[in-house]
Amino acid sequence: MESFVYDALPVRVVFGSGAARTELAGEVERLGASAVLVIASDRDAERVRALTAPFADRVAGTFSAVREHVPVATAEAARAAAAGADAVVCIGGGSTVGAAKAVALTTRLPILAVPTTYAGSEVTPVWGTSQDGVKTTGTDPVVLPRTVVYDPELTASLPLALARASALNAMAHCVEAFWAPRRNPVSSAVAEEGVRALADGLRDGDPADLLLGAYLAGTAFAAAGSGLHHKLAHVLGGLGMPHAATHAVLLPHVLAFNAPGSPDAAARMARALRTDDAVAGLRSVADAAGVPHGLRELGLREDQLDEVAGRTEPVVPADNPVPVGGGALRRLVQAAWSGEAL
Question: If 286 and its partner were Cys, which of 130, 166, 275, 291 is the partner (CB 3.0–4.6 Å)?
Answer without folding.
Answer: 291
